């Protein structure tokens, strides 16, 4: 499984790269802020919402600590998606937050 550090992600965000971030945390968790531009798809909803994803794009998957996002990455990779897990998740992320 491909992984990325939060520093690598912050550098890409600072460079205004066109990123596709999926946040698989629960509703109550995302209330505390999300990575700017991230799409919220709770882990339990991934199987029924894969139709919302484009398999020609790459995705960075994030959760609180990196375990749920690793599970999501494993599932999505099996479905043919190009996914990268964010090491340490939101607990390691100290960049800008967006509130929805």
TrEMBL record:
It comes from the Bacteria. Pfam families: Rhodanese. Gene3D superfamilies: Rhodanese-like domain. Residues 15-99 form the Rhodanese domain. InterPro entries: GlpE_sulfurtransferase, Rhodanese-like_dom, Rhodanese-like_dom_sf. This is Rhodanese. It comes from Solibacillus kalamii.
């Amino acid at each position: 499984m491909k992984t990325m550090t939060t520093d690598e992600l912050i550098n890409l965000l600072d460079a205004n790269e066109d990123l596709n971030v999926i946040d698989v945390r629960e509703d109550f968790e995302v209330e505390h802020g999300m990575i700017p531009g991230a799409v919220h798809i709770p882990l339990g909803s991934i199987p029924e919402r894969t139709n919302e994803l484009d398999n020609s794009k790459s995705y960075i998957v994030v959760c609180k600590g990196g375990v749920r996002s690793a599970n999501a990455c494993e599932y999505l990779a099996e479905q043919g998606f190009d996914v990268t897990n964010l090491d340490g998740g939101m607990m390691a992320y100290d960049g800008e937050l967006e509130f929805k």
